[in-house]
């Protein structure tokens, strides 16, 4: 996946930017920790329509000080709530998910990934210490089993200040084209996250996003897509 030559400029001018593993403080040991969390800590998402079981997930919430770039994981986060305006499928519902303890090794890994994204958002003026001194930062660890829908709600916004998507693993799947749209619905970018920590960052007030369905590439083998989604919202 190509990288932006100037991600902060891209984020400022186009409302999105592209990041890869080289943009993060991320080691092979960190990769092992993140993969292990997906293997052992996620649970079926009970908020899908009846009979649909393709999405499994876990959740963390951090309190972030924008001024000193500190992240504090909450031990008992509030239920996650979006408006019906941005989520026609689950908006208005207080959703609780399997949560990861702040002492889990993945907490530090996710905080560093979120910090790298936050630095881009600060550089682009999407976050600012004077106007957004404190944020809640949501971390969604999401596995979609094939066949499945990464975005069952369709093209959408999340109701956040900003968000990002980070590939952890693609295993025996096809599909999962990620698209960004301006608010008129015109597609402005399309990419496929193929390698660990291939990522995109977006200003949620200025663009919408969507990812196409995934299918099994080779029958008889496990097939899924693991993605870490991070969202920044007002505390």
Layout of SSEs?
Blueprint: H1 7-14, E1 16-19, H2 28-40, E2 43-44, E3 55-65, E4 70-73, H3 106-123, E5 134-145, E6 162-171, E7 173-175, E8 177-182, E9 187-192, E10 199-203, E11 207-211, E12 214-216, E13 224-234
Antiparallel strand pairs: 1-10, 2-3, 3-4, 3-5, 5-13, 6-10, 6-13, 7-12, 8-9, 8-11
Protein name: 2OG-Fe dioxygenase family protein
Organism: Nocardia goodfellowii
Pfam family, one: 2OG-Fe_Oxy_2
Q: How far from one another are the termini? A: 33 Å
Beta-strand percent range: 25-35%
Structural class: alpha+beta
Give the number of helices.
Answer: 3
Q: What spatial form do the alpha-carbon principal axes imply?
A: globular
Tally of DSSP β-strands = 13
Helix content: 10-25%
User: Radius of gyration in whole Å, from Cα?
Assistant: 17 Å
Please give the largest β-sheet.
Answer: 8 strands, antiparallel
Spans of 5+ residues with little confidence (pLDDT < 50)? none
- The helix/strand series, from N terminus to C terminus, equals HEHEEEHEEEEEEEEE
Overall pLDDT metric: 93
Describe this structure in words.
InterPro entries: 2OG-Fe_dioxygenase. This is 2OG-Fe dioxygenase family protein. The chain has 3 helices and 13 strands. It has 235 residues and is of the alpha+beta class. The strands form 3 sheets. Strands 1, 2, 3, 4, 5, 6, 10 and 13 form an 8-stranded antiparallel β-sheet that branches. The protein has a 3-stranded antiparallel β-sheet with strand order 9-8-11, with no helix packed on it. Strands 7-12 form a two-stranded antiparallel sheet. The longest helix is centred in the middle third of the chain and has 18 residues, at 106-123. The N and C termini lie far apart (33 Å). The mean pLDDT is 93.
């Amino acid at each position: 996946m190509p990288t932006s030559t100037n991600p902060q400029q891209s984020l400022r001018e186009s409302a999105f930017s592209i990041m890869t593993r080289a943009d993060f403080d991320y080691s092979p040991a960190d990769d092992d920790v993140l993969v292990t969390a997906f293997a052992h800590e996620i649970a079926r998402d009970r908020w899908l329509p009846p009979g649909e079981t393709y999405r499994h997930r876990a959740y963390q919430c951090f309190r972030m000080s924008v001024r000193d770039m500190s992240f504090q994981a909450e031990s008992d986060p509030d239920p996650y709530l979006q408006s019906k305006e941005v989520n026609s499928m689950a908006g208005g519902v207080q959703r609780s998910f399997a949560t990861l303890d702040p002492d889990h090794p993945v907490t530090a890994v996710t905080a560093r990934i979120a910090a790298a994204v936050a630095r881009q958002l600060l550089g682009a003026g999407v976050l600012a210490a004077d106007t957004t001194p404190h944020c809640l930062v949501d971390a969604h660890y999401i596995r979609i089993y094939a066949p499945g829908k990464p975005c069952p709600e369709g093209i959408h916004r999340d109701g956040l200040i900003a968000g990002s998507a980070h590939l952890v693993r693609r295993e025996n799947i096809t599909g999962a084209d990620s698209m960004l749209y301006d608010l008129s619905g015109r597609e402005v970018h399309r990419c496929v996250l193929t390698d660990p920590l291939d990522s995109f960052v977006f200003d949620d007030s200025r663009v919408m996003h969507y990812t196409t369905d995934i299918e099994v590439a080779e029958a008889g083998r496990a097939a899924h897509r693991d993605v870490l989604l991070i969202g920044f919202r007002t505390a």
